[in-house]
Amino acid sequence: MLLHVVLCLGTSAFKSPDEFKVSLPLRTNYLYGKVKKTLPELYAFTVCLWLKSSASPGIGTPFSYAVPGQANEVVLIEWGNNPIELLINDKVAQLPLFISAYGESSTHICVATWIYAETSMWEAFQDGEKTGTGDNLAPWHPIKPGGVLILGQEQDTVGGRFDATQAFVGEMSQFNIWDRVLKPEDVMTIANCSANMPGNIIPWIDSNVDVFGGATKWPVESCEERLLDL
Fold this sequence. Notes:
Layout: H1 2-9, E1 20-24, E2 32-35, E3 44-53, E4 60-67, E5 70-78, E6 85-88, E7 91-94, E8 107-114, E9 122-126, E10 129-134, E11 148-151, E12 170-178, H2 184-191, E13 209-212, E14 216-219, H3 223-229
Antiparallel strand pairs: 1-12, 1-14, 2-11, 2-13, 3-8, 3-12, 4-5, 4-11, 5-6, 6-7, 8-9, 9-10
C-alpha cells in the first residue's frame, strides 16, 4: 500500500523521471491526468505517445487542450464507431490510425501538423510508419497559448465538464509535444526505441503530470521491453 501511494504521488520512486505510465481503468467523467505545463503559441507541432486501450467501441479521448473561448483547441478522440479524429479549433481531420481495444501491447502513435499555412497539412504515424496525410485542417490558425492540457478526457469547458462516454480507458506513456514537425526518420527512431527524444514543449516527466479521481501512475517497462511485446 505504501508503495502504491508513493508512486501515485509521483516521486523519485521511478527509476527515471520518464519511466512511468498513467492508468485510467474506468470510463468515467472523473478519472484524468493533467499536464502542469501549458502550450505556447504554436504554428506547427508534433504529438507522440504510447497507448493501450481497454474499452470499445472507440478509445475515447487520449488528450485534449482547451483555451478560453475554445474547448476544442486541440483534441485527439475516437468516439463510438467513428474514426480517430484530430480536432483543431473545432475543425476535424479523420486519421488513419487503428488502436485495438484490449490489446496485450501498447501502440505508438504520432500526429504532426503545419497549421499556420494555407494548406494546413497533417501527417499520422503508427508504430513508426506513416499511415496517411491530409490538408485544410484549420488553416492559418495558430494554437493559442495558456490553456489546459488534460489526459484521458474531452473538455467542454477549460479544465472540466467531462463526458464519461468520451473518456479514454487504458494506459498511456511517453506523451511528448514538440513545436515543429518531426521528420519521419525521427518518428521511427522514437517508435523503435533507437533514441530518447523528449518533447521540447511538453516532455513526459513524472513531476509534470498530476492524476485525479482514481487515475494512477505506475512504473512502465522500458521502451525495448515494450517492443518485445509487439
